[in-house]
Structures are given as structure tokens and as C-alpha cells.
């Protein structure tokens, strides 16, 4: 074993991540409008294997949500009441030692319908208070402009991101928040997991499938609009926020071939290539050539305006942020093979990996491979902005929560992050998802818990909302204090 002490770089941004639609609550407070997230329901009795059905949205569900004036059955409407409790939460985050916190701005707090002439001052003032409180506690904000929520009015009036007009409305929103918070926020992200629009058109793009004759064509056209909006956001962020850095965000879906059969290897290679399509556009500034064949085979034609290609090329992301939870396995013929679920997508079971309670395969080494792949391909700084494990947590008789499984998950991933840094990868930060228990994006559950901090609330919204540190809270606090040195590294340092 080498005597060299591996360590994270000085100034490494240790933190946590949350999203407005999963924590804020206060869905109808201070002028906030109805968003796509406010349509998401929790369906009791749905098995873990079928949890994706929770997020399937159709016309009937939208109409019902629009006429429903309570948060009952709509967990994202209540969140964990972060809107009112954020000072308490920031104090706890400070105790943990967070250097940074990834949050998002709810578009519907700033422009309730999305197309108003003037922004909602009450919404702007809330984020002023939030960012001030973060700085008061020594926490650097990282702000996502679009994190799985958009004004529902834009969905019904314009067809969501399928309509080019939404680009202009999003840019207006972006310019308002850049101008308002230019002295408070230096790190920004454009679209959360921009690739997810191809899997979840409504959640990510405000596209209701039954309203369109050719959904796939609509989705890729909407994606192009998001690419343009992202490039314009980069442009105006650089112009309006001195010293700012703005990144893109990808769901990293590491895929292995099921066997060394060249057909399996080719399928896995194509899956990985497609996963990089989204960052190719946002970081290299152009559509990759391989996507042309896919579009040709599917009969997809992207309508571009004059100047779109030049815009993409001129305003590329400063860094790549991404989520990493698990890896996948691909086979040319998967019929009869055991399948597993995952974060927004499933696949063939990998016999070499353990799975969590929701069937997600735990693969820390896949994170190292992903980091090397991304850095080798793009040569820009990388930032892991989501990584974590959902689990049922049990409160012991003494009131403690002994979540050693969560500690083990994170320790294994930090180990592989260190390995990747030694490989030469420029990794600048890590924000665990979610730093505090919140409403699950995929299933709208509360009891699928990710946090280092327990929140007393069940799937039906019952509970005191009391915040309680878990065992992992103290572990992560020590990680941050030691800049991520693992046990063996600390022992070597002492020796």
C-alpha cells in the first residue's frame, strides 16, 4: 500500500442538495402559482417496483389538480415546510459544517403563470431572505434555475417547452433572478437532469403526451428549446453576474454490457454515447454527429431558427454537474433476464452489485468510471450535485437513528471520488442528495428518506416536522471537518 496520503483539493465544496418543489411547501402562499410539481400525487399501496407510476401524469390528473385546493394527496405541495423553517434548517446545516447548499428557485414564485409582465415581489423577497440566511451561516448558494417544475399555465396555454415562446419566458425569468441576486449567488445551474425530458416529458418539459400526435418529435423539439434557453442563460449569467460560473446538469447513467458479446458491448456503448449527447450540446456547443442517425431512423426533424447553432457554440457551460446514484446493464436481448428499477430508468440486473430497498444497484466504482469518462471527454471541472440512497429509517427506543447503511453507501462513493481525483479528474465539489429528508421526486413519498437529518412526517403528511440528526449527520460533519480524509488516510496522516 502506498504511503501517499490521498486528499480532496483545498477549497473543495462539501455540501448538500435540495429542490424547491420537494422541500418548500407553501404552494399557495405569497402569490405562488400552480406548477407541474403541484400535480404530482402519492398513490397509496403502489409497490416499489411500480413507483414510476406515481409520476405518470395524464389529462384527468391535471384537471383534478387544478380544481383541488388542498395539499391532501399532493405531497410536493406541502414539502417539509422549508419555506417557513429555512432559518432553523440553515442553523443545522451550519452545525454540520456545510460549505455549500444546492437549491432551486421556483419559477412560479417569481412569475406565477410564467408570462406576466412584472415579477412577483413576494417571491423575490423570499429568496433574498433565503440567500441572506445562507451567507449568514457561511453557506455558499448553488442555484438551479429549472428543477422539475414550471408554471402549469404555460403547459396548458402553450404546450410547455414544445413552444418556442417558452424560451423567451424562461430567459426573462432568468434575467430577473440574475439581476436580483447577482451579489448573493455566484454558482448557477440551468436545467436539472436535462436528459430526463426523453423519459419524463411532463415532469421535465411540461409535455402532456396525449395532447400531441407525435410525442417523440415533440420531446426532441422541446429539448432543443431547452438547449437554446440554457445557452441564453449562460450568456446572461456571464453578463449580469460578475465572477459567476454556470453549469449544465446531467443524469449520469453509467451502462455496462451484460457480456463480452460484441452486440451487448455495442448496445452499452450506444447507451453511454446517448447519455453524453446532452452534455455534448451544452459543453462542446453543437449537436454530435451520432445523433443524426438516431433522428433519421426515428423520423425526427429539429426546427431551428437562424442563429441557433451559433448561439449554442458561443455560450457553453463553465462546468458539468451531474447526479449519480447507480449503474445499469444493457443486453442486445434481455428477454427472460431479471430486471431492476432505478433512478428514472431500469435495466438488467447486475449480479455483481447489491441493491437497496427500491431495487437500485449500488455501484461506487461506477462513479469513478463516470468521473473519468466525463473528464476525459470534456476537460472541464466536474461537480457531483446529487448522490445518495433512499431508505426506510427506524427511530430507536433512545430516539437515535442508526443509519450505518447510509454511511457505508457514502463512504464507498467518497473512496471512489478520491481515486478519480488521483486519476487526474478535476472534481470541485459534492452535494449529497438530499441533505435533509424531503418528498421523493419519483414516487412523492416521504418515507423514502435520503437525508442526514430526519424530518418527522409520514407519507400522509402527519407529524411534527421536527428535525433530528441521524448518525450519518455526525459522520458527514467529520468528513467535512477533515476535508474528506477517510479513516485509513487519517491514520496515515497521524503516523
UniProtKB/TrEMBL annotation:
Highest taxon listed in the record's lineage: Bacteria
GO molecular function: hydrolase activity, acting on glycosyl bonds
Pfam families the record matches: Glyco_hydro_1
InterPro entries: GH, GH_1_N_CS, Glyco_hydro_1, Glyco_hydro_1_AS
EC number: 3.2.1.-
Keywords (A to Z) from UniProt: Glycosidase, Hydrolase
Alphabetized PROSITE patterns for the sequence: GLYCOSYL_HYDROL_F1_1, GLYCOSYL_HYDROL_F1_2
UniProt keyword annotation of Hydrolase present: yes
Active site: 386 (nucleophile)
Record family assignment: Belongs to the glycosyl hydrolase 1 family.
Protein name, UniProt field: Glycoside hydrolase family 1 protein
Amino acid at each position: 500500500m502506498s504511503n501517499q496520503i490521498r486528499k480532496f483539493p483545498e477549497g473543495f465544496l462539501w455540501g448538500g442538495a435540495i429542490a424547491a418543489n420537494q422541500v418548500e411547501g407553501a404552494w399557495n402562499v405569497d402569490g405562488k402559482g400552480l406548477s407541474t410539481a403541484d400535480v404530482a400525487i402519492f398513490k397509496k399501496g403502489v409497490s416499489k417496483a411500480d413507483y414510476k407510476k406515481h409520476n405518470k401524469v395524464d389529462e384527468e390528473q391535471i384537471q383534478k389538480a387544478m380544481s383541488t385546493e388542498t395539499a391532501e394527496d399532493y405531497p410536493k405541495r406541502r414539502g417539509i415546510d422549508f419555506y417557513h423553517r429555512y432559518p432553523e434548517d440553515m442553523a443545522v446545516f451550519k452545525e454540520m459544517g456545510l460549505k455549500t447548499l444546492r437549491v432551486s428557485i421556483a419559477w412560479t414564485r417569481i412569475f406565477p403563470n410564467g408570462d406576466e409582465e412584472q415579477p412577483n415581489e413576494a417571491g423575490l423577497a423570499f429568496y433574498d431572505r433565503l440567500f441572506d440566511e445562507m451567507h449568514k451561516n457561511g453557506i455558499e448558494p448553488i442555484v438551479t434555475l429549472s428543477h422539475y417544475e414550471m408554471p402549469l399555465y404555460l403547459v396548458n396555454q402553450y404546450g410547455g417547452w414544445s413552444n418556442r415562446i417558452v424560451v423567451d419566458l424562461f430567459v426573462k425569468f432568468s434575467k430577473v433572478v440574475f439581476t436580483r441576486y447577482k451579489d448573493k449567488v455566484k454558482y448557477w445551474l440551468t436545467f436539472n437532469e436535462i436528459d430526463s425530458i426523453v423519459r419524463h416529458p411532463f415532469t421535465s418539459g411540461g409535455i402532456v403526451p396525449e395532447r400531441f400526435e407525435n410525442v417523440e418529435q415533440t420531446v426532441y423539439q422541446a429539448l432543443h428549446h431547452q438547449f437554446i434557453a440554457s445557452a441564453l442563460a449562460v450568456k446572461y449569467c456571464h453578463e449580469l453576474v460578475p465572477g459567476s460560473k454556470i453549469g449544465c446538469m446531467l443524469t449520469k447513467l453509467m451502462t455496462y454490457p451484460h457480456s463480452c458479446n460484441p452486440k451487448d458491448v455495442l448496445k452499452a456503448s450506444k447507451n453511454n454515447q446517448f447519455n453524453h449527447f446532452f452534455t455534448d450540446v451544452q459543453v462542446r456547443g453543437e449537436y454530435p454527429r451520432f445523433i443524426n442517425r438516431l433522428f433519421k431512423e426515428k423520423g425526427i426533424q429539429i426546427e431551428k431558427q437562424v442563429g441557433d447553432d451559433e448561439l449554442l457554440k458561443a455560450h457553453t457551460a463553465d462546468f458539468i454537474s451531474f447526479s449519480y446514484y447507480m449503474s445499469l446493464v444493457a443486453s442486445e436481448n434481455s428477454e427472460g433476464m431479471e430486471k431492476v428499477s432505478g433512478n428514472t430508468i431500469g435495466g438488467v440486473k447486475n449480479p455483481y452489485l447489491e441493491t437497496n430497498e427500491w431495487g437500485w444497484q449500488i455501484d461506487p466504482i461506477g462513479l469513478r468510471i463516470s468521473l473519468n469518462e466525463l473528464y476525459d471527454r470534456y476537460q472541464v471541472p466536474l461537480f457531483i450535485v446529487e448522490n445518495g440512497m433512499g431508505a426506510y429509517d427506524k427511530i430507536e427506543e433512545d430516539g437515535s437513528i442508526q443509519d450505518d447503511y447510509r454511511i457505508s453507501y457514502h463512504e464507498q462513493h467518497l473512496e471512489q471520488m478520491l481515486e478519480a481525483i488521483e486519476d487526474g479528474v478535476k472534481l470541485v465539489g459534492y452535494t449529497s442528495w438530499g441533505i435533509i429528508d424531503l418528498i421523493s421526486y419519483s414516487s412523492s413519498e416521504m418515507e423514502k428518506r435520503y437525508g442526514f437529518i430526519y424530518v418527522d412526517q409520514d407519507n400522509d403528511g402527519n407529524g411534527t416536522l421536527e428535525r433530528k440528526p441521524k448518525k450519518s449527520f455526525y459522520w458527514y460533519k467529520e468528513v467535512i471537518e477533515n476535508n474528506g480524509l477517510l479513516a485509513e488516510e487519517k491514520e496515515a496522516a497521524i503516523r
